Amino acid sequence: MRMPDTSETLLQVEGVSLAFGGVKALRDVSFDIRKGEIRAIIGPNGAGKTSMLNVINGFYHPNHGAITFKGRTRAEMQPFEASRGGIARTFQNVALFKGMSALDNIMAGRTLKMRRGLLWQMLRYGPALAEEIEHRHRVEEIIDFLEIEAIRKVPVARLPYGLQKRVELGRALAMEPDLLLLDEPMAGMNLEEKEDMSRFIIDVNNHYGTTIALIEHDMAVVMDLSHRVAVLDHGVKIADGTPNEVKKNQGVIDAYLGIAH
Amino acid sequence: MLYREAGQFKTTYAEDMAIFPIRQDRIALGILLGIAFIGVPLLADFDIWPFGSDYLLRAILLPFLILALAAIGVNILVGYCGQISLGSGAFMAIGAYSAYKLGTGVHIPLTWLDFAISIPPLPVLLAILLGGLTAAVVGILFGIPSLRIKGLYLAVATLAAQFFFDWVFLRVSWFTNYAPSGSVNAPTLDFFGLNVGTPIERYMLCLIFVTAFAVLVKNLVRGNLGRQWMAIRDMDIAAELIGIRPLYAKLTAFAVSSFIIGVAGALWAFVYLGSWEPLAFSIDRSLQLLFMVIIGGLGSIMGSFVGAAFILILPILLNLIPTQLGVPLSTETITHLEFIIFGSLICFLLIKEPHGFARLISIGKEKLRLWPFPY
Amino acid sequence: MIALGQFLEVLIGGLMSGVLYSLVALGFVLIFKASGVFNFAQGAMVLLAGLALVRSLDLLVAWGFPVWAAIILGIGFAAVIMAITAWLIERFVIGPLVNQDALTLFMSTIGVTFILEGAAQMIFGSDAYPLRLFPTDAWFLFENLFPGGILVNKLDVWGGFIAGILVAGLAIFFERTKTGRALRAVADDHLAAQSVGIPISWIWFVVWLAAGLVALVAATVWGTKLGVQFSITFLALKALPVLIIGGLTSIPGAIVGGLIVGAGEKIAEVFLGSHIGGGIEYWFAYVLALAVLLVRPQGLFGERIIERI
């Protein structure tokens, strides 16, 4: 497997705590994501993994802590700032735009790259049409890459779950992100679909050099795919390191086997 | 001629992105436009039934075109952007009364400054477009709450617009140029020296407006902005996380929608009614427009036309058919029957086919494409 | 300087008419709590209940029934009509639309509004019918304190009294009965409720029936005040801003919201309306609701919802 070329830190989360009323979702969690790596976040259900991703892309605002992304430190991210800064995301329960075709969903991912204003779009002539076609080219490349040519004009609500997940990945890729957050990209898939998805993830990381942070339950997948793994349990980070280190960690074994502490 | 697309290959993305990628559809549209732009005026000129008495033009085609335009405006907001509006009538009124003021000359005395703002009467076309612009500005103002509130709450916010402006145009006599009856008359419809007076001229004027706006809006909704609107409609949180700004997407939807509704309002007042009262733009109008959009198809430009046609034609049929059958209904019964039919149809379509008649038509086309095989 | 006596009189009058808004708003809250449906048809239900009551009353009296018997039978008849309506709505509209988004459900209730308005007027007639169930004359209070005293309508007092009983009854229903508890469970998560064996269509029927009966009560008070006529539906629409102000899910919110709107619009009309042309009552409630939405979107008593993804 290809190792990341640099040890430069892309994103650093420091001492983040997040509470909803009395429920503490995250407690003083710190970890980093290095440029070019595949970083896994694992943990039992309710460990705070999704909350962590939500903090990173600004959907939740932490009560304490700091987030450093591309060298800028702030107490919280804003969704718009995150997306403009190059953080893309897929969701645990597919969050596609149900009324739109697969193509339009992925095209929507190009929003930030499109410049023509309302009046040009209204005329759809000259520069506006050229822009639309240019982005269509880029999107078609992604469609080819994900092997979903046949379904590009199908409304996504009609697609099976596995394909929806793929379209969602396509939408995230269309943003040409620097950091791609994948929330359980393989949940509910059969073996074949999981293998496809793993291949896509590795390809994205290899070809585009995109940094990836993923949450996944399938340990075999996590151990094979990722360069480094962080383990959360009850909102606390209990281990961090290479897959092999994490596998041997007693705290992790306890957390997964449910030993009381 | 069979409805087949076999052998029609698209070799560029531009061709693939055309509004009607299938040739037969383009031909059908061409025929339709031909009838609308050439056929109808010719028939009217030669006085061939049913155009002899101008009834069809004045009572059906004219309101159909204008209300279809308004329905397109409502569809942008409700169908494409998913923001419910119960105040479309008010925005028609804003378009109508601002166009009226601008078309008859604006005079605002600022007595404490010993100064007055005066704008001479503007040409009608400019007045109508500026009427739309005024509606757009007010639409943006009333769209601002939509950034914090969603769905049902917004329904009440738009109701506020409806009732507030009902009252404004009824009570603030400045808007009606102090007409004692509260009813006002449109200025002469003078377009670049051309006086638009006869029904066929009015029809052509509205047809041009509607065609132009339909094309422009169709371009918008299949472009980047349209995708942003639909993204906000389908899943606003995910939309925000891929970089769509809800502020921009929602407010442009409110602006474009209100602009078109405002222009439709000005046309309704100037071209269709001629003289009017605030009652012409009450909440009943708002609900009627909403119905057109639901029945015709949420998120479909063609649906706006279908919905408008249906809502206008149903009462006429209800009047005509029982009379032909020898059991004429009273006007009251017809109104109540209309209520029941519209209501039932709304419920039926929401349950069975939320995308309205437009979707039913495209399913029909799909079937026709495969005919005579079931799939 | 405005006389205190006049102010009090306007305030009391406003609070009392606010009670009427609260009555309709209660029906909304009931349905919203149990099914997440924002019921635009509540006004139409008031009209239907009112028409069914007043027309059957007229008929029964004409047939020679004594007034007390006619009232009991008339109210019973109207209640049956509301039960049938509730069943039809659940069976043919809300039931099939289960799991749809709130906006679709809302629009379907606009459809229901039209069906009910059309059907009610087609069956029972579309004129204004006077209803006399409660005394409509007035008391003059504190005549020794203020010149002329403070005028209070007996009908308004009756309205307040009835609203009080209704709220107490609903509170007991929600907190103490099995159906009430099931109802709150359905409101939280109807799939989960279904999976533990709560018959969801039965619950929804009960809710719509309750809302229908609340509409009937509102119709008796409003009908006495204004006569039963189509314009009642517009007044009932004001329950929407009342709800926004009070908070969509809160029964006390509906009451307080109604009182605020009732008092606010009367005071605004009397003391402000004269300066800007009158008729403020027409929009005051809505603009007030708009202001509340901007400051506190969940309303005074509503719960804040945390969004998840």
Automatic annotation (TrEMBL), chain A:
Instruction: Say what the protein does.
Output: Involved in beta-(1-->2)glucan export. Transmembrane domains (TMD) form a pore in the inner membrane and the ATP-binding domain (NBD) is responsible for energy generation.
Q: What's the protein here called?
A: ABC transporter ATP-binding protein
Top-level lineage group: Bacteria
Q: Where is the signal peptide?
A: none
Q: A single GO CC term, please?
A: plasma membrane
Indicate whether Nucleotide-binding appears among the record's keywords: yes
SMART domains, sorted: AAA (SM00382)
Keyword Chloroplast assigned to the entry: answer is no
Q: Which organism is it from?
A: Bradyrhizobium valentinum
InterPro entries linked to this entry = AAA+_ATPase (IPR003593), ABC_AA/LPS_Transport (IPR051120), ABC_transporter-like_ATP-bd (IPR003439), BCA_ABC_TP_C (IPR032823), P-loop_NTPase (IPR027417)
Q: Which GO terms describe its molecular function?
A: ATP binding; ATP hydrolysis activity
Give all residue intervals belonging to the ABC transporter domain. Answer: 11-259
Cross-referenced PANTHER family, in alphabetical order? ABC TRANSPORTER ATP-BINDING PROTEIN (PTHR45772:SF1), CONSERVED COMPONENT OF ABC TRANSPORTER FOR NATURAL AMINO ACIDS-RELATED (PTHR45772)
Sorted keywords for this record are: ATP-binding, Nucleotide-binding, Transport
TrEMBL record, chain B:
Q: Which CDD domains does this chain map to?
A: TM_PBP1_LivM_like
Q: How does it sit in the membrane?
A: Multi-pass membrane protein
Where in or outside the cell it occurs: the entry states: Cell membrane
**Source species, domain of life:** Bacteria
Major location category of this protein:
membrane
Q: What is this protein called?
A: ABC transporter permease
Give the residue spans that cross the bilayer: 27-44, 56-78, 90-110, 122-144, 151-170, 202-221, 251-271, 291-321
GO cellular component term, pick one: plasma membrane
The alphabetized UniProt keywords are: Cell membrane, Membrane, Transmembrane, Transmembrane helix
GO MF annotation: an example: branched-chain amino acid transmembrane transporter activity
Keyword hit for Cell membrane:
yes
